[in-house]
């Protein structure tokens, strides 16, 4: 078992670096469009976000896409805010620790790909058909 006595939990910048590596490795068909999305790492989702999603436990939300999916964008109706993917550091770390069977970079990668899939127009149901991660 690893000795964590002298180690600190990964900070937001480390989570962001992992996420940016994942984005850089996206297939060419998606990579260009992914560059238009802001990436923000926050400690936890705030109360307003949780209320909007009708969630009580902030540890249940590891990531969030906020924007208009590419499949719904219209040239005649420009968006007034940038598409953004949020990663919630403490929720990610909590899941990583509680699972105990996955590398942190794999978990962050999964959350990033899931949220960017929403940007590309995929629903949770679409993602679940090909991604059995949560089973």
Round the Cα radius of gyration to an integer and report it: 16 Å
Count the strands? 3
Shape: globular
Q: Total number of helical segments?
A: 6
Major β-sheet annotation: 3 strands, mixed
Cα separation of the termini:
26 Å
Structural class: mainly alpha
Mean pLDDT: 86
Query: How much of the residues is beta strand, in percent?
Result: 5-15%
Low-confidence stretches: none
Name the features.
mainly alpha; 135 residues; 10% strand; 3-stranded mixed β-sheet
Can you put this structure into words, describing what you see?
With 135 residues, the protein is mainly alpha-helical. The protein has helices at 12-24, 28-34, 47-52, 89-99, 104-119, 124-130; strands at 38-42, 63-66, 84-88. The protein has a three-stranded mixed beta sheet with strand order 1-3-2. The protein is globular and about 55 Å long.
Give me the secondary-structure topology.
Blueprint: H1 12-24, H2 28-34, E1 38-42, H3 47-52, E2 63-66, E3 84-88, H4 89-99, H5 104-119, H6 124-130
Parallel strand pairs: 1-3
Antiparallel strand pairs: 2-3
Helix pairs in contact: 1-5
Task: Sum this structure up briefly.
The protein has about 140 residues and is mainly α.
